[in-house]
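User: Let's play a game. I give you a shape written as tokens, and you guess the letters that built it. Ready? Here's round one.
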């Protein structure tokens, strides 16, 4: 069997994700007939049927499901290899830190200060993205280390938890529920999160690929919250740093806590990445040590 080509895998993944040859061809910027020929050639090359085709629908076979999983992994690795090679060949290498602005729990400045004192440190570069984008940025080779909210897609990654805190619901101050001091998820029925997911589901993880993201940053999200268009599950530190007269933050008793983690590729061998992880863990440990006496004083 001849080796698979990157082009074949890209074409296959497009059809497998769209489950429609016409949409896949449009996504790839090509005509449908050559795409169909490529998929037929791929099936002959592998000796298996990848798609069940009828006049009404296209479905993956068991073999197609396996190839889709592995093809995605292979394409991610190829993309990451190119990005990392370019980065390694830069005349001024930096440590690229992926994060969503505003979700660092206020720890990032302290982490960067501690990191800068390490002999292995390189100049930091922030790679800002949306909620849930950070793990993929690591896999794609666009970042070296990340601060990300859990749960996250941790395929191919290692991580260390840094900060676990309650999650509050942010809602318009005019919302009738704002008159209450504590809520349950069931109380949020009929309200939606920025991803379009019903708030009553209690989903705090990033939206799945392809989900609607009407707001790309916290400023936009809070503006929509103020108008009553959506509600938003905010870690306590985000709520603390974003007080707004038009927004009420309320605890939700059955909403899972949020965990901020530092993550990096499993095969990372960079001393700068190790230095950043050490700094993040040290600063977080010191933060917990300072917070514990305050917690005890409020309970006595």
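Assistant: Ready! My guess for every position:
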């Amino acid at each position: 069997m001849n080796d698979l080509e990157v082009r074949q895998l890209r074409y296959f993944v497009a059809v497998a994700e769209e489950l429609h040859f016409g949409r896949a061809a449009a996504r790839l910027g090509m005509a449908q007939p050559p795409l169909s020929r490529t998929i037929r050639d791929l099936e002959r090359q592998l000796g298996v049927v990848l798609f069940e085709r009828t006049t009404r629908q296209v479905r993956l076979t068991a073999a197609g499901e396996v190839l889709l999983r592995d093809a995605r992994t292979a394409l991610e690795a190829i993309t990451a290899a190119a990005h990392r090679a370019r980065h390694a060949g830069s005349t001024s290498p930096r440590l690229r830190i992926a994060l969503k602005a505003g979700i660092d729990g206020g720890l990032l400045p302290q982490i960067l200060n501690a990191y800068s004192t390490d002999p292995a440190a390189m100049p930091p570069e922030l790679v800002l993205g949306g909620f849930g984008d950070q793990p993929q940025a690591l896999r794609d080779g666009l970042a070296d280390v990340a601060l990300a909210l859990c749960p996250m897609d941790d395929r191919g990654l290692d991580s260390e938890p840094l900060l676990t805190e309650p999650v509050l619901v942010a809602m318009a101050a005019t919302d009738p529920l704002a008159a209450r001091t504590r809520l349950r998820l069931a109380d949020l029925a009929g309200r939606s999160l920025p991803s379009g997911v019903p708030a009553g589901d209690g989903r705090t993880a990033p939206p799945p690929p392809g989900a609607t993201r009407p707001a790309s940053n916290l400023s936009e999200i809070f503006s929509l919250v103020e108008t009553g268009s959506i509600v938003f599950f905010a870690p306590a530190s985000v709520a603390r740093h974003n007080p707004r007269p038009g927004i009420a933050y309320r605890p939700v008793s059955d909403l899972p806590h949020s965990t901020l983690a530092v993550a990096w590729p499993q095969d990372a061998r960079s001393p700068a990445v190790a230095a950043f992880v050490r700094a993040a863990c040290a600063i977080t440990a010191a933060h917990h040590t300072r917070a514990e006496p305050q917690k005890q004083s409020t309970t006595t």
